TrEMBL record:
Record's compositionally biased regions (Low complexity): 337-349
CDD domains linked to this entry: SANT, ZZ_ADA2
Localization annotation: Nucleus
Polar residues composition-biased segments: 151-163, 359-381
Species this protein is from: Gryllus longicercus
Domain SANT: 78-129
PANTHER family found in the cross-reference section: TRANSCRIPTIONAL ADAPTER 2-BETA (PTHR12374:SF63), TRANSCRIPTIONAL ADAPTOR 2 ADA2 -RELATED (PTHR12374)
Myb-like domain span: 79-125
Transmembrane region(s): none
Protein name (Swiss-Prot/TrEMBL): Transcriptional adapter
Keyword Transmembrane helix (UniProt): no
GO MF term list: chromatin binding; transcription coactivator activity; zinc ion binding
Length: 469
């Protein structure tokens, strides 16, 4: 006696012992796989009728073989034993929820965990035979899209905004400012009411005429411009680190302090600050450096033109020329009949100061003092006030020639408000005058004449460069 019921193919009349095809529209109509694949038609049956796969399985309860819908049978062999229904649900869930959303995919299948759904899809549809045959073909058939968008080099271009540095602030500072670093947004943005332009707008195709549509589009354009201005200000804040500068005064132990700029540099930077809106931070810094370099070159060119007009063609002749010019002016003063010692007379001392200023003008600066009291020099060459508080030191670290000075000379130039180039010119003139006239002349005697040359001469004597009688 056979353990299962026999079925015959309605078309070829052969026995069906395995998988068979059952027509869902015709009564008692079964086909074998060969006839089904050939598209067999007989009587009222057509090959476009709906059908079901029926498979033989062993029923453990009845201890007998039975046929049922193949979609409910485990048709995938291997780890997990997925049924056809589960595979179909898996593919539908992937299409609906997207790859990676395994929690929702598992809930859609109902019988599998998220880990099982992920492993099955990757193993069978990506790394399996199906994936190896379908993914490369699909990738080759995709059209190659090209970005024809013209390059945007404006202040809001993605090329600029994507390279902006992050804000250097702590969590506490960001919280107090209402700033969200991950979103690069503030709790209260600039022009925070800009969205009110669009909130009451809605499109009604039946009632809106052309004028209403144009008015609403104008509101959208206004809103876009306000958003662009908001984005521009945020870019400036990030690029120039304005938030970090805002909290810089309250920080005590975060990095070294920035070098102090001179008053002249601060005024120069303030005048050109309005130009920063057209540059990035790096471009603006380079712009300022170029302007300063151009100014120095113009000054140097004017010096060289003056030397060439006087017949000088070598750099070593310039110092001798300046000394001879001073000697010539001094001789003219003597010849004019001025009485008393040249350096001890107040009037001659003032003229001596004017001559030294003329030397300093070759570097486009004259020695100026904020106080009428000239600073004295201690044994180390540092400048201090004759009475009261010491002069605030001037930062000369950014000036040309700073690296040529010693530590005492730097302090001396800071206290006298001298540029390094001015100090080296006066020092060269005094040393050449000492070599030409000797230490026993009255020109190297420290006199009460007010002027930068007096304090430089005092420093040269105290440091051993020259000897005074």
């Amino acid at each position: 006696m056979e353990d299962f019921e026999k079925y015959h193919c309605t078309y070829c009349q052969e026995d069906i012992s395995g998988l068979r095809i059952k027509c869902a529209e015709c009564t008692d109509f079964d086909l074998c796989l060969q006839c089904f694949s050939a598209g067999a038609e007989i009587g009222p049956h057509k090959n476009d009728h709906a059908y079901q796969f029926m498979v033989r399985y062993f029923n453990k309860n009845d201890h007998a073989y039975q046929f049922r819908d193949a979609r409910a049978i485990e048709v995938c062999f291997g780890k997990g034993g997925w049924s056809a229904n589960e595979e179909i649900h898996l593919l539908h869930a992937i299409e609906q929820y997207g790859f990676g959303n395994w929690e929702d995919i598992s809930a859609f299948i109902e019988t599998r965990s998220p880990e099982e759904a992920k492993e099955e899809y990757i193993a069978r549809y990506m790394e399996g035979s199906i994936g190896r045959l379908t993914w490369p073909t699909a990738a080759q058939s995709r059209p190659n899209l090209e970005d024809d968008t013209p390059s945007d080099n404006g202040p809001l271009s993605p090329r600029v905004t994507s390279q902006l540095p992050p804000l250097d602030i702590t969590r506490e500072e960001a919280a107090s400012l209402g700033y969200m670093p991950q979103r690069d947004d503030f709790e209260r943005e600039y022009d925070n009411s800009a969205e009110s332009l669009l909130s009451p707008l809605f499109i009604n195709n039946l009632e809106d005429d052309d004028l209403d549509v144009a008015l609403k589009l104008a509101h959208v354009d206004m809103y876009t411009r306000r958003l662009r201005e908001r984005a521009r200000r945020k870019r400036v804040v990030r690029d120039f680190q304005l938030v970090s500068m805002y909290f810089a005064q309250t920080r005590k132990d975060r990095g070294s302090k920035k070098k102090l700029s001179s008053k002249e540099e601060k005024e120069f930077n303030d005048r050109l600050r309005v130009m920063s809106q057209f540059h990035t931070a790096q471009e603006h810094e380079q712009f300022l450096q170029n302007l300063k370099k151009a100014r120095e070159l113009r000054i140097r060119i004017s010096e060289l033109i003056r030397y060439r007009r006087n017949g000088l063609t070598r750099h070593e002749e310039c110092a001798h020329f300046e000394q001879e010019l001073l000697d010539h002016e001094e001789w003219r003063e003597r010849r004019s009949g001025s009485s008393g010692s040249i350096l001890s007379s107040p009037s001659m001392g003032q003229k001596k100061k004017e001559r030294s200023d003329a030397v300093l003008s070759s570097t486009d600066a004259k020695c100026t003092f904020k106080s009428n009291k000239a600073p004295n020099l201690n044994s180390s060459g540092e400048g201090v006030e004759a009475a009261g508080e010491p002069n605030p030191p001037t930062d000369i670290s950014t000036l040309q020639g700073y690296h040529l000075l010693s530590a005492h000379e730097i302090k001396l130039c800071s206290s006298l408000n001298l540029k390094p180039s001015q100090y080296m010119t006066l020092k060269m003139v005094l040393l050449r005058d000492y070599v030409n006239k000797g230490p026993k002349k009255e020109d190297v005697v420290l006199t009460p004449t007010a002027g930068p040359e007096k304090y430089i001469l005092h420093y040269l004597v105290s440091s051993g460069w020259i000897t005074a009688s």
